[in-house]
Amino acid sequence: MRDHTFSDDFRTQFDLLMRLRRDVRRFRTDPVDEAVLARCLDAFRLAPSVGLSEPWRLIRVTSAPARAAALDNFLAANADALAGYSGDRAQQYGRLKLSGMQDAPVHLAVFCDDATDQGHGLGAATMPEMRRYSVVTAITLFWLALRAEGLGLGWVSILDPDRLTRDLDVPATWRLIGYFCLGWPEETSDTPELERAGWETRRPQLAIETR
Amino acid sequence: MRDHTFSDDFRTQFDLLMRLRRDVRRFRTDPVDEAVLARCLDAFRLAPSVGLSEPWRLIRVTSAPARAAALDNFLAANADALAGYSGDRAQQYGRLKLSGMQDAPVHLAVFCDDATDQGHGLGAATMPEMRRYSVVTAITLFWLALRAEGLGLGWVSILDPDRLTRDLDVPATWRLIGYFCLGWPEETSDTPELERAGWETRRPQLAIETR
Predict the structure, then answer these.
(1) How far is it, in rounded angstroms, from Cα A200 to Cα A194?
(2) A156 vs B191: CA distance, rounded Å
(3) Can you name the residues that pair with B175 across neighbouring β-strands?
(4) Which of A82, A181, A186, B87 shows the greatest Cβ crowding within 10 Å of its Cβ?
């Protein structure tokens, strides 16, 4: 049992942390200190997980062949995505930088073990996707912990997940949640890169309906 | 553009915030100040979302019939879940308190609009589940913001999501991500309730494989 009251100053800083957390695609190539990375990875163990199932599975992608397979996968999926747009939208899409895979010093592939026995299935009977959602909460904490150290994370989802699962030789019961580029960002901002590039704008407020 | 370096003290406090964030099922019935709740809900707008799609959709469940429908839904799903266990495990499951729906002053049902045009599909072609994951990142930020105010959140996933979608009369393209109980926790802790109840223990460390 631990009681604790957080201060107004902490809440202000935490709000700033959320505002400065960005999806980063432009990285410096400087290495990331392993001790800092390890400290940030501890955030995974503090995440909520359905039934305490801790279904996150992490692969650090370091070898040249594994990185090349992931990059090829992205390039193919991105070319397919581009082919799905036309006119101005296609031109705009073609100009976007959607992954930092060629510069980021650290690459992580994060999976969900849908077949884990841990947690004895609690909370995942009617909504088995809760295991995957647990992994996403862990990634979110990790992302904030990285930003608190000045590090950036980029979430690559323009990938064929089944192909990556095969290429990285992980169990077939593992589902890819995301491929992550990690390193020192070239710049910091409180505005999403897609908004700065004119792709989309955020809504001015959160809508809440009542029942 | 905004540069900012977070302090060691902030990082220590942020680590504590993650450690004290719990899935809360035991609430005091005191009301939650609307201004505090609104401040915490702002966290949704700071979440990452694939293609800037902002696919989160929130329903505040306040009416007696809507709350009764959600509670009935939970009770039925929980009875089904209990029937799936046997022996000691069933006894243990039966003793767990798995939702604070009868006490929590604020109830929110959070959905993902899988059909939104916002974001023009960017990043969601090969992994359309990224929209749902975006909603989960927003919930995670909201959860931390609540805890920074001393408030607790409980994520109820023992529900038939399709039934709740119908009962709350939301569009069929909205997928339930979770039903949330929110209020002042009866107690605070740095240990998950399921671990304290002996249901499951967390692994001693995070395993990372390399490829």
Answers:
(1) 6
(2) 33
(3) B112
(4) A181
For residue B162, which amino acid is it?
D
CB of B23 less than 8 A from some CB of A: yes
Domain spanning A23-196: CATH 3.40.50.720 = no
Contacts across the A-B interface (CB distance below 8 Å)? 288
Do A120 and B210 make contact, defined as CB atoms within 8 angstroms? Answer: no
Residues in chain A: 211
If contacts are CB pairs under 8 Å, which of residues 68-87 in chain B contact chain A? 77, 80-81, 84-85
Q: Do residues A105 and A61 make contact, with C-beta atoms less than 8 angstroms apart? A: no
Strands (E), chain B: 56-60, 106-113, 152-156, 174-183, 208-210
Here the ipTM equals 0.97
At A80-133, the pLDDT tens digits run 999 999 999 999 999 999 999 999 999 999 999 999 999 999 999 999 999 999
- Cα A92 to chain centroid distance, Å, stands at 23
Full-model pTM: 0.97
The fold adopted by the segment(s) B30-187 is NADH Oxidase (3.40.109)
Instruction: Encode pLDDT of A120-175 as tens digits.
Output: 999 999 999 999 999 999 999 999 999 999 999 999 999 999 999 999 999 999 99
Instruction: For chain A, give every domain's residue range.
Output: 23-196
